[in-house]
């Protein structure tokens, strides 16, 4: 949605938040600057957690949190506790995994990762197909670096 649409919706009493996943930080800024103060914005882009929080987002609706829930939660908790430097350090540590989780069409990598973690997320259904081997190797490498597998 365009910011203008979100701004109009933000003035409707039972619309209290938006998941903003355009990938455009200017759009996040425009929404947060112009919406009522009680309106909440969550980023829908894991790679933008820190910049979105710095612009005033209230959190993230995260794909990576399926794989590293405590760590994603810790990034936001640290940020809101005022320990921005530690949040940034943890986010930088998670960023290669986040990138690997979006190396192919979502939800292919996250479902693959959940299966690697033995959560039995099941098989992919068409039109989704298994990850390309080179991408699977990268996903496994990033999961291994974080001692997940």
Description:
A three-stranded parallel β-sheet has the order 1-2-3. Helix content is 51%, strand content 7%. The chain has helices spanning 3-10, 25-34, 49-55, 69-80, 84-100, 108-116, 133-145, and strands spanning 17-20, 40-43, 59-60. It contains seven helices and three strands, in the order αβαβαβαααα. The protein is globular, with a radius of gyration of 17 Å. Helix 1 (3-10) runs parallel beside helix 2 (25-34). Helix 2 links the parallel strand 1 and strand 2. The protein has 149 residues and is mainly α. The model has no long low-confidence stretch (mean pLDDT 97). The longest helix has 17 residues, at 84-100.
Total number of strands: 3
Computed Rg: 17 Å
Unreliable runs = none
Q: Tell me the helix content.
A: 40-55%
Keywords:
149 residues; mainly alpha; 3 strands; 51% helix
